[in-house]
Structure formats: structure tokens, C-alpha cells
Amino acid sequence: MKEPIVQFNDVHKSFGDVKVLKGIDLDINPAEKVAVIGPSGSGKTTIIRMLMTLEEPTSGDIIVDGKNLWKMEKNGKPLRANEKHLRSIRGDIGMVFQHFNLFPHMTILDNCMVAPIHVKKEDKLEVKERAVQMLDRVGLGDKLENYPSQLSGGQKQRVAMARALVMRPKIMLFDEVTSALDPELVGEVLEVIRDIAKNDDMAMVLVTHEMDFALDIADKVLFLDEGVIAEQGTASQVIEHSANERLQTFLHRFRKV
Amino acid sequence: MNYWSWETFADALPFVLQGLGITVGLTITTYLFALIFGFVWTFLRRVPNKPFNWIVTWAMEFIRSTPPLVQLFFIYFAWPMIPVVGVSLSPFQSAVLGLGVHFSTYIGEIYRSGIESVEKGQWEASKALNFSPVDKWRKIILPQALPPTIPMLGNYFIIMFKEVPLASTIGVQGILLMANTYGARHWAYLEPLTIVGIVFLLLSYPSAILIKKLEIKMNTRFDKKTVMDTRVNA
């Protein structure tokens, strides 16, 4: 059996007195596509934000490619991870945000080139070629010199995906990437994700409300409820054969809308 | 009109203007000092350590709440008398240090407001793309934080220009001190001090207009880009 690329071992997270996650255990295999569904406030986003090092877990371990993300050792003593330690692992992970978070002061080509050049110290020409190729792939090859403010929400989100892909992460995280979009723009973004899921061999974690889409592309579906993984398995296991009442209610409400 | 003499005016003019280089030079030097030192405050305040933060905030508050004139006197007259740490500075150096530090606390606040106006998502994206702390500031945060502060920074240039004559009190030979000297020598203050007023007006008014223009340009920067682009596409 292959080693999982990400492991969560009894991960808890509280914000102040509010316990958001109450013991998450999770394995993600390389190239596995995982969809995380569940009601608002169930902690879905927090899971991937901890993996992206945007939030620190209150307790538990997150192992990425065999390395403990939030803990390190110095002279045999366990310590809280410092920025250097986080940076050494973070490079394997990419993220696409709900609100795109493109850099407004750069053209979309520069948005895609700045990190590979300055973070990974890659050759500028090689990066440019790859960035152009990637923007082409997401259908924005004709907008290279445009600024983000000149694009629609769907276009911005596709740039954000190209920007993350150019970094060649081993794990890609998608945080409700269609939630901030006008309904007519959702489709074009989902198409790009479908394309990535089909053709790239990185692991993907999608936090999403696009239920049918998630079930369609995911190898594994997690139903998160009240801070725990209440159900997990293949799409058909979770959707069609689960006896979990809250999951059925949740799905039912979604299908009706 | 025997209290006003154009002859005295003509005589005083070159004498007073001898100080112009010092006045302008002191303004620019002090301003550059304040621009750089403002960053020091901004970053000191960001150090994630509560007691340290409290000390820095308190120090800024102290500097802002005491008159710059008192600070100048302290640096020039009192500081050299303190054993061990006392340093004797020239009037010009004292003025740069005193006024520069005083105004740097305001400029530090301007930087801070600029930095705080950068959206949280930009910080998160920088992290997700694994930028080093230095590159994050250099490539992502400051290029967004600083342009909107330029008009405010410009205003402070003019405000400082008008505070620089304070340095005459510790012997910096700018136009005010030159005018005063002329007045004492010839017992004629009206003309030289009028010259000082005119010089300040002539320099600060056009600067103010320039800054106003800059402000309008900054405010419409992103809109303009869009407008221009639609025109190209059409």
C-alpha cells in the first residue's frame, strides 16, 4: 500500500471557546481527489486552512509527505514549527481561494510568474513559457497583459488556478472556489477543475457546495458535521448507502434547492 | 509709507536668500530621515511581542505629545550634558534628528494605515505561494500599501517644510535666522520677514497644488486603467 501524502491524526481546532474541529483523522493518498462537504460552520474550510498553514491546529498532528507540518525538533526537543520549517513543507501545497486573492498590481501573467521566479528561483523564460501555457489551458491565453480588475469573477478564479498550478504542487486545495461567483460563471470554473482532476496527478482537496460536481470527480467524499468526519467513503457509498440521518437531511436540502 | 522701504527690501533679499539652501536642504534631509525612520516604527510595532509593542507604542505617543521645539532644545542643549550617552551634534544634525524623529512617528502611522488597507487575502495568497517574508513585503504588500499613502506623505512634506524654521532657534542658518540677523543688524524687520513669508508661500503653495493633482491621479488610478482598456477594445 502506498504512503498517504497527507495524514491528520486526531486534529483539534478551537477559535477561542468555540471548538470547530473535534478530532479529525484523515488519510489522503497521492493523486487522490477528496471532496469535503457539510453544513456551513462544520469546519470544512478550517481543515484545508490548517494544511495550508493559515491556521495552527490546537492539538494533533498533520503529516505531509512524512513530515510533521506544525511540529519540529531541535536538538531532540519537540518544538512548535517556525516559519522556516513551515516554508520547507508549504512548497508542496497550493491553494485556490474563495475570493481569488489575485495580486491587483500585477498583470495576470505576472501573477502566475512571480512565485516560481522569486520563491522557487526558477529560470524566468522557462517560467514564462509554463505560465503562458497554463493560462492558455484555463482559457485566458489572450488576456496575459490584463490586470485582475479587468476580468470577470470566473476569469479571475481561473487565473488563480493557473497561478497555483504553475508552482507544481503535490497537493491542491480548493476553498469554496465557486461560492463568490455569479451563477452563470460557475460552470467555466468547474470545467477547469474537472480538467485538472482528470489530467494532473496531484492530490486535490475540494471544499465545496457544488454537490453533484464534487460527487462526480471525487475518489473520496467526507461529510463533515459538528467538527467531526461523520461519514467517509466513495461517492456512491456516502450518498446512496449512508444511514447517517443528518447526511441524508443535508443532501435532501441541497437537492431541493 | 516710510515704514516700508523697497531699498531695504532689495538689500535684504540676497542676504535672506543665502539661507534658502539650508532651509530647503534641511527640509529634504529631515524628510528623507523621517521617511526611513517611519519604516522603523512601523516594523517595530509589528514585532509580535506584547511588552515590546507596548513600549514602542508608548514611545511614539511620547514623541508625538511633546512639542518638537522642546525636543530640539533637548537634543541640542541637554543631550550633550548627559554623561556617557551624551552626544554633541551640530545645529543642522540636531534639527534633522529632532524634527526627523518627531515626524517619523506620524509617517509611521501613515505607513501603517497603508499596510492595514491591504486585504487579508493578499497575505494569505503570499503564504500559499510560499513567499519568503522579505519577498512578501517587497513584491506583494508594499507595492499595494504605499501608492495610496503618497498624497498623505506629500502633505507631510509641506507640513514639515513649514516646521523647519523651528531650527533657527538652535542656530540653523535658514532663511528665518538670516532674516532675523538682518533685522537685528539694520533694525529693519519688516522687509526681511516679509521676504521669508513670500518665499514660504512661493514654495509651499505650488507643492500643495502638485500634491492635490497627485491625489486625484492616485484616486482614479485603477478606474482609469479600466476606462482606457475598454476604449482600446471598442
UniProtKB/TrEMBL annotation, chain A:
Q: Which Pfam families match?
A: ABC_tran
Any one annotated GO CC term = plasma membrane
**Domain ABC transporter: from-to ranges:** 6-251
Identify its membrane topology class. Peripheral membrane protein
InterPro entries in the record, alphabetically?
Answer: AAA+_ATPase (IPR003593), ABC_ATPase_HisP-typ (IPR030679), ABC_transporter-like_ATP-bd (IPR003439), ABC_transporter-like_CS (IPR017871), Ectoine_EhuA (IPR014343), MetN_ABC_transporter-like (IPR050086), P-loop_NTPase (IPR027417)
A GO molecular function assigned to this protein is: ABC-type amino acid transporter activity
Subcellular location(s): the record lists:
Cell membrane
Instruction: Enumerate the SMART domains for this protein.
Output: AAA (SM00382)
Instruction: Report the main location listed first in the record.
Output: membrane
Keyword annotations from UniProtKB, A to Z: Amino-acid transport, ATP-binding, Cell membrane, Membrane, Nucleotide-binding, Transport
| Family from the record | Belongs to the ABC transporter superfamily.
- PANTHER family per the UniProt record, alphabetical: AMINO ACID IMPORT ATP-BINDING PROTEIN, GLUTAMATE_ASPARTATE IMPORT ATP-BINDING PROTEIN GLTL
Q: What is this protein called?
A: Ectoine/hydroxyectoine ABC transporter ATP-binding protein EhuA
Please tell me the species this chain comes from: Oceanobacillus piezotolerans
- Record lineage: Bacteria, Bacillati, Bacillota, Bacilli, Bacillales
From TrEMBL, chain B:
Coiled coil stretches, renumbered: none
The way this protein sits in the membrane is described as:
Multi-pass membrane protein
UniProt key word Transmembrane: yes
One Gene Ontology term of the molecular function aspect:
transmembrane transporter activity
Q: Specify where it is mainly localized.
A: membrane
> Membrane spanning segments where?
20-44, 69-89, 187-211
Cellular component terms per the entry's GO annotation: ATP-binding cassette (ABC) transporter complex
Q: Name one GO biological process term.
A: amino acid transport
State the UniProt keywords alphabetically: Amino-acid transport, Cell membrane, Membrane, Transmembrane, Transmembrane helix, Transport
InterPro entries assigned to the protein according to its UniProt record, in alphabetical order: AA_ABC_transptr_permease_3TM, ArtM/GltK/GlnP/TcyL/YhdX-like, Ectoine_EhuD, MetI-like, MetI-like_sf
**CDD domains referenced in this protein's UniProt entry, alphabetically:** TM_PBP2
Q: What sequence ranges are listed for the domain ABC transmembrane type-1? A: 20-211
Lineage top rank: taxon: Bacteria
Q: Where in the cell is it found?
A: Cell membrane
User: Which family does the similarity line name?
Assistant: Belongs to the binding-protein-dependent transport system permease family.
Identification of the protein by name: Ectoine/hydroxyectoine ABC transporter permease subunit EhuD
What's the gene? ehuD
